[in-house]
Design a protein that fits this description.
It is built from two helices and seven strands. The protein is α/β, with parallel strands linked by helices. It has one domain. The longest helix has 8 residues.
Length: 91
Amino acid sequence: MKALRVISERTNKEWPSNHPLRKAVHFVLNDEKRAEFLICAEAGSERITPADDDKDLFIDCGCGKHLVYRDSAAKHLTKICFECWGKIEGP
């Protein structure tokens, strides 16, 4: 499985043009279904505050970790933690 690190239309609009992660990601439209998973942060970890019209949502990963993601994230993606993604992506 190939990892494709992407940002959404919303993130593309919110990130400043000189954001350092822009060099490591690709921009995709929200209706593109090139991804299957959304790698989420663990609940309680340090994160940027959501935009006024967005909010954090919480879900449990299959391994039991409590995760946080944005309501604006693509709905079709399976939410998983970084460690579970590592098991799927492999070495």
